[in-house]
Amino acid sequence: MDAMNYRVIIFNAAKDGKLERLKIFLDGRPNDWLDNCLNGPSDTTPPLVIAARNGYSDCVKYLIAKGANTSVTGVVTFDGETIQGAPPLWAAAAAGHLETVKALIESGANINQTTSTNSTPLRGACYDGHLEIVRYLVEHGANIEIANRHGHTALMIAAYREKVDVVKYLLEVGADAKRASSKGNTALHDAAEAGSVEVTKLLLEHGARMEKDEYGVTPLMSASILGHAAVIYYFLPYASYRERRDAWKLLGATMVDKRMDLSGATTCWRNSFEYNSLVKLQSGGEDEINPLNEVSRIVYGYHEEVNSEEKLELICTDPEAMRMQALIIRERILGDFHPEVHYYARYRGAVYCDLGRLDLAIDLWLHVLQLQQHYLFPMHPNTLSTFVAFLETFAMVIEDTLINPFEHRLPADRLNLETVLVVYERAVLEFERYLHRDEELHKEQILPGETDINQDLENFRDVLLQFIHLINRVILLDSQPSTSINIHLNDELLTANIPVLNPDSERNINPTNFINKPETQTCLSTVFCSHSVVTRLKERLKLPEKTVYPLRPRCPHLLCNVRRLVQILEHLHLFPVHSACQESDQGEGKHFPSHFVVDRLIRAGADLNVKNSDGNTALHILLSTASPRLSIVKLLLEAGAPLLARNNMGITCFDLMIQKFNGQLQNFEFAKFITLKQIAANFIRWHGIPYKDIIPADIEKYLDVF
């Protein structure tokens, strides 16, 4: 029998350490049979890898004796994480099986062979602190400086995992304590993030220094961000007075947002004030804390960073002011490009949303969205997550309004059309950024296995289509105008609402209230252009620049924005109408197939003849749903969807209509939607009549639909 038929049996025996069972099936087999069974194919996990992973050294020795290659690789799992391309030695070392490691080394296994992510057996052993294995590997020639694909070394992972004995040993045998990863972080950063004073002390004693990573963050700042006060105390002698002051301020911000400890934050900020005079002395008399830019000041309600005991006393009993202080401090020290700034601003927005302050939540999220689109590469997971948060929140507000239609709502708790359109425009822009990305740079930024960009694109397409449907729902609910601007949905003019709040209210950071203030006119002039419709790509791609975020849509025509989306999706072969015709039970997708969305896509020029990989047109997809809506079927047919289009299974849309609407089509005027051209094309394809290079090319393309 073919060796491949025995592979599962051999694998299971090796996995369970059943040596005698292995002998029953492998003894007496020819070498080519054994090689085929034990070493191929590459898309499965070989028996030697799983035996090494589970520490069955007797099985490992036997399999090697039977011809198993010590360099084969497979897939193993550790702590719920799947490791691709793991060689037997890596699997044994990471799992802590010393005898198995010895057996593999003695059989000639490559001591530095890496996984798909370039992790060595030594690094695998360091993860869980298997000191004896680490020592054995080093003594037998393991390279202690080989880093994984992120530039992360064995010393760094040992420091992060707080494996003190392993760190000490690696330093003793010459590991470089100053080495930085591809993102600039050192082992000292890892020790600070872990909060390990012992590891920090060891690293400093062996020459580690307070270097900055790619975000400009030092190990001291890392400890502050994570809230490790004990490590901060140990780092202070190695930092300048300004760095010490900022460390205490950052720790206070962490106390507010991560620990929910306002009292602890007050103590930290008081500690920071002790360095004010020393900072002034050390910097030659200058002690100015640089204020945030105008955009951030507006978003944070013109709150100022406190830098004295007197000012702290004014806010320490006001939880809202303390929380805003944490956001201001974090953005000032880390910079508005830092992920922690984005994360906590989004988090604070979510809290505001739960408290019924939708206006404050949207202001913070729009600020975060602008920063993400300004700094992050297109289709970054964090940016996509922000768009999903907007979509889910908008849908939640609409559902709440439908459930409690007569409940009085303050303007701050209402959802207005302009906000939805602004976010939708930004989402379309994100697709445009991706379409015109620098491909080489994008490949460098997205590491293999970290994200499935094709799946991300499909998911984000669905989010955009759900936004279009959401716009229709907002229109239907929006019936309490206060002031208005004109929004064009297609050929009609829609009056949309802008709730205007009292600009003198105690806490209102909605930028609408600042339009008439002199100090914001300069910023706002960059947003309200003399031309209302932006159509040139270069103009649109300037949107991510950091300005006051658009209070009103840059283009008041929904059709214009949908047309932009359709062009992008069709260029990327993402089939917008197909998606709009699909059923879904998730979130806003539960309203699909959507008549409104399909109608807008058709008006925007979407191609109804295009077929997916299964040969289905959008009409095929619609008719394949559990209960297709005849109104959407008619909409597609009236727009030119081919009724006789045939998929890869040979099924036409006409066939599906008869099947789905049996007995309901007596008065359906099929003749209106079946042209002579369709009949001729269908006849040619059905009977296999040759037509290639005989008829015009454009008609050839049309025939392919049938």
From TrEMBL:
Keywords: ANK repeat, Repeat, Ubl conjugation pathway
CC annotations in GO: cytoplasm
Pfam families xrefs: Ank (PF00023), Ank_2 (PF12796)
Pathway where this protein functions: Protein modification; protein ubiquitination
Matching InterPro entries: Ankyrin_rpt, Ankyrin_rpt-contain_sf, TPR-like_helical_dom_sf
UniProt repeat feature ANK, residue ranges: 43-75, 84-116, 117-149, 150-182, 183-215, 614-648
UniProt-listed Gene3D superfamilies: Ankyrin repeat-containing domain, Tetratricopeptide repeat domain
Family, as annotated: Belongs to the fem-1 family.
Keyword GTP-binding: no
Domain of life: Eukaryota
Name of protein: Sex-determining protein fem-1
Protein's organism: Acrobeloides nanus
